[in-house]
Design a protein that fits this description.
This protein is mainly β. The protein has four domains: 141 residues, Nucleic acid-binding proteins (OB fold (Dihydrolipoamide Acetyltransferase, E2P)); 101 residues, Beta Barrel (OB fold (Dihydrolipoamide Acetyltransferase, E2P)), CATH 2.40.50; 117 residues, Beta Barrel (OB fold (Dihydrolipoamide Acetyltransferase, E2P)), CATH 2.40.50.140; 105 residues, OB fold (Dihydrolipoamide Acetyltransferase, E2P) (Beta Barrel), CATH 2.40.50. It is built from seven helices and 26 strands. A five-stranded mixed beta barrel has the order 2-3-4-6-5. A five-stranded mixed β-barrel has the order 9-10-11-13-12. The chain has a five-stranded mixed beta barrel with strand order 16-17-18-20-19. A hairpin with a 3-residue loop joins strand 21 and strand 22.
C-alpha cells in the first residue's frame, strides 16, 4: 500500500492508504496500560477494526505477524500486520514512511507502539467508505519492534463475487491475507496513475480488482484463468486485493474457471453468469447470441443532453467520426477512444466519445477514421473519471460499442467546428458540459504553461484550458513557448482521465492543421 497523506487527486492515484469504514470485528481483551511512547493500553487488531474504538485513540498492538512490507513501486512504505489467529478483521495497515520498515520481513512477530487509529479517505472519495489504519499521532512516530519469529497465517479462502456484492463483506478482509480460487482475468492490467507507471490494476471474476501495489502485474492477458490468486485485502476508492509476489498468482487450466457468457440461454437469463460485471446483452461474449437485445434508437444530442439515461443500450445511425485517439498499446492509453457527431457542423451537445476497450472489443476497425459515417450500438455511461475524480460532472461516453454499416467519408474540410465559444466557458465545470465531445475553434489564445512532454495550457485571464496530445502530438515537431499567441486552435472538447490536467476539461487538436500558429491578437 502507498502513502496516504497527499490530497491532490492525480497524485493520489499512485498512492494507497489505510483502511476502514463500518468495521464490526470482534472485541479483543484490553492489556496492561503500557504508558510507553504514548501508546495507551494494549489492544488487538480486532479492536482497531471495530467501530467501538474511536478515530484518534492511541493504539498499541503486540505479538502481531508481519504479512507484507511495501517495498515495491514508486511510493513504497508501510506494512501489513495480522493477528496470528487470522479470520475476519484480523489485519490492518501500519502507515510508516520511507524505510522505517525496511528491516522487517513477512513472518516477523512485532509490537506496534505509539500509533493512533485512523480512518482515511481523500476528499474526492464520496462513497462514505474509509480505510482503517494505524498512523503516527500528530507530530509523533510509531515504533515497530521485532520480538520474535513466526509464520504468516494461511490465506482465508473467500468468494470474489460475494465480496463484490457487499461492502461489509469486503470490509472484513482489509489487511487480511485472502485467496480467490479459479478466477478469470476480465480486463488485463492497466495503468491507473499518471505519476507512477508501476501502479496497475486488473479485474478478475467477481468482478474484483487486483492491484500491483506490492508486486508487479506483467504479461497477463485477458481471459487468463488462475487456479488461485492470493493477496491482501485493501481499499482505495474501491475494494481490491494486493498480491505480494508472482508466487501469489498460480496459473490454472481454462476449464477450471467459469466459462464466458455465451449462447441464447445464458445470454437471456438476466444473470451475470461469469461474474464479469456485465449480464446478457451488455456482455461482449453475447454479441453472437440470437437473443433480441433491446436498444433505444437515439441521437448524440439526446445522449449528451440527458434525454437518454445512463446504462441505456442505444443505437446511433450514420453518425460522423470527428477524431480518433492514438494507438498506444502500453500504459494508461492502451484503450482507444473516438468521437462522433450527429452532423458535420459543430453545435452544443453534438458530440460524444466512444470508449473502445481493445482487450474486450478487439482492435478498432480500420474503417474508423475521421469523417467516416457509421452506425454504433453501445451503453451510455456517465464515467466519473478514475476514482470518482470528476463525479460532480462525469464524462458522458458510449461504452462497449459495436460498429457496423460503414458509410461514406465526409471530407475533413466539411467538418465545421463550433465557433464563438469563450475559452473560460469550456474550461469551467459545469459550464463545459454542452461542449463535451464537440469540435470547437478557439481564437486568439495564449500559451500560459507547458505540461508533460507534448501538452500545454492556453488561457485568457484566469481561465486556463489544457491542450492534450491524446489525438495529435503537436509539440513533437513544433516549438511552443509560454506567451505565444495562436490565431486559433481547433479541437475536440474532452476530459482528462490520466494526464497532466487532473480530470479537468481539455482540448484535443487532431492534426497540425488544427493549430494556426500565425500570431493572433491575444488579450
Amino acid at each position: 500500500m502507498k502513502s496516504t497523506k497527499l490530497v491532490a487527486m492525480m497524485l493520489a492515484l499512485s498512492l494507497f492508504a489505510c483502511r476502514g469504514d463500518d468495521d464490526g470485528g470482534d472485541d479483543g481483551d484490553d492489556g496492561d496500560d503500557t504508558g510507553d511512547q504514548g501508546g495507551g493500553e494494549d489492544t488487538s487488531i480486532y479492536d482497531v477494526q471495530s467501530d467501538d474504538l474511536a478515530v484518534g485513540e492511541p493504539v498499541t498492538v503486540r505479538g502481531v505477524v508481519v504479512v507484507a512490507v511495501d517495498a515495491y513501486g514508486g511510493r513504497a512504505g508501510g506494512l501489513y500486520v495480522m493477528e496470528p489467529e487470522g479470520g475476519p478483521f484480523s489485519g490492518v495497515f501500519v502507515f510508516v514512511e520511507g524505510t522505517e520498515a525496511a528491516e522487517l520481513a513477512p513472518g516477523d512477530i512485532v509490537d506496534v507502539v505509539g500509533g493512533v487509529k485512523d480512518e482515511f479517505a481523500l476528499d474526492d472519495d464520496e462513497t462514505g467508505r474509509t480505510l482503517t489504519e494505524i498512523s503516527p499521532p500528530e507530530g509523533g512516530t510509531i515504533a515497530v519492534t521485532k520480538t520474535g519469529d513466526g509464520e504468516v497465517p494461511a490465506p482465508e479462502t473467500v468468494v470474489p463475487w460475494e465480496l463484490a456484492a457487499d461492502d461489509a463483506e469486503s470490509e472484513k478482509w482489509e489487511g487480511v491475507l485472502v485467496r480467490f480460487d479459479n478466477v478469470r482475468v476480465n480486463s488485463p492490467p492497466e495503468g491507473v496513475s499518471s505519476t507512477d507507471e508501476t501502479l496497475l490494476e486488473m479485474r478478475v471474476t467477481g468482478p474484483y480488482a487486483v492491484q500491483s501495489a506490492l508486486t508487479g502485474l506483467t504479461d497477463i492477458e485477458n481471459g487468463t484463468c488462475y487456479s488461485s490468486i492470493v493477496g491482501i485485502g485493501d481499499y482505495f476508492f474501491n475494494y481490491k486485493i494486493l498480491p505480494r509476489s508472482a508466487d501469489d498468482l498460480v496459473a490454472g487450466a481454462d476449464e477450471d474457471c467459469l466459462a464466458p457468457e455465451i449462447g441464447d440461454e445464458l445470454c437471456g437469463d438476466d444473470t451475470d453468469n461469469d461474474y464479469n460485471g456485465f449480464a446478457d446483452c451488455d456482455d461482449f461474449s453475447c454479441a453472437d447470441a440470437s437473443v433480441a437485445c433491446p436498444t433505444t434508437e437515439t441521437s448524440v444530442a439526446d445522449i449528451q443532453s440527458g434525454v437518454v439515461e445512463a446504462d441505456t443500450v442505444v443505437s446511433l445511425s450514420q453518425v460522423i467520426v470527428t477524431g480518433v485517439s492514438f494507438d498506444n498499446p502500453s500504459g494508461v492509453l492502451q484503450n482507444r477512444t473516438f468521437w462522433v457527431q450527429d452532423a458535420a457542423a459543430g453545435a452544443e451537445n453534438n458530440g460524444v466519445s466512444i470508449f473502445w476497450p481493445e482487450e474486450a472489443a478487439g482492435e478498432l476497425p480500420p474503417e474508423i477514421v475521421v469523417g467516416r459515417t457509421v452506425n454504433l450500438q453501445g451503453t451510455v455511461e456517465e464515467f466519473p473519471c478514475l476514482d470518482d475524480a470528476c463525479s460532480d460532472n462525469p464524462l458522458t461516453r458510449l461504452n462497449f460499442a459495436t460498429a457496423s454499416d460503414f458509410g461514406p467519408i465526409v471530407p475533413v474540410a466539411d467538418l465545421i467546428p463550433l465557433e464563438g465559444v469563450d475559452l473560460a466557458t469550456i474550461a469551467a465545470d459545469p459550464d463545459s458540459e454542452p461542449y463535451e465531445g464537440v469540435l470547437v475553434t478557439l481564437e486568439n489564445v495564449e500559451v500560459v504553461a507547458l505540461a508533460g512532454t507534448n501538452d500545454f495550457s492556453i488561457g485568457v485571464g484566469k481561465a486556463v484550458l489544457g491542450v492534450d496530445d491524446v489525438i495529435f502530438r503537436y509539440r513533437t515537431d513544433n516549438d511552443v513557448t509560454v506567451g505565444q499567441c495562436f490565431s486559433s486552435i481547433t479541437g475536440i472538447v474532452h476530459r482528462d482521465i490520466f494526464g497532466d490536467f487532473a480530470s479537468a476539461p481539455i482540448l484535443l487538436p487532431r492534426s497540425v492543421e488544427d493549430l494556426d500558429a500565425t500570431p493572433g491578437t491575444c488579450p
